[in-house]
Design brief:
The protein is mainly α and 258 residues long. It has nine helices and three strands; from the N terminus they run H-H-H-H-H-H-E-E-E-H-H-H. A three-stranded antiparallel sheet has the order 2-1-3. The protein is globular.
Length: 258
Amino acid sequence: MTTTMMMMMMMMMMITMMMMMMGMAMANSPNDGLTTCLYEPCDSQAPVPLPPLPYPYDSLEPSIDNQTMTFHHDKHFAGYTKKMNAALEKMAAAMDDSSNSTIEGLMSSLSSLGADPDTSLAFQNNGGGFLNHKMYFATMSPDGQRTPTSDSALEKAIVASFGSFDKFKEEMSTAAKGVFGSGWAFLVLNQDGQLAVVANPNQNSPLMDSLIPLLGIDVWEHAYYLLRGPDRGAYVDAWWDVVDFAPVEQAFEKVAPA
């Protein structure tokens, strides 16, 4: 074998290794998580069912009262789900793309789906309401895990991004209390593989900004006004007493960069 042939073989091997490494990096990119369903239900074929509340309506008292939970889940969440299904029926053509096999995938690619403006806005509002609320109700529990597991991937990521769990909690609370009007505060995974806290108005999903939502607190007045009136701060403080980080850890493991 000549020297030239050996050099060509070595170059081909190096190119192959580089392509494999690039493929691995792309496979582990947080961008892949934009289409990943982290909380059930995951089907995007209408009609998508309203997920049942996974605990009794009165079980989060005194943090969140029975009547608020009943109205919030059975009326507001149900309303978003029904109107999202109506929008999905009009967006059926976009479902042919396998990357849009989840509501999350549709939301993250909404601007490129080619739906008419009214349908896009209806899906943005009600699909966002569906995604935000299924996460909200799934990440609370009367006897849940109030902090991440020690040395878990999520705890390490929170410490790396915020300095400590207490600093994350403070930043999340400040964001929630500071939302102007109606909206949400979210813990998200960004495209750099870092955790961050963001606040969004209305039902706007972080997925539209290429951010993967892991946890969210609803600060629309329907989430707290019956019990606490205009005292949003008291609701936010009490919310931490019913958060369950077990499903948040499971969600993070699905999308965390390797």
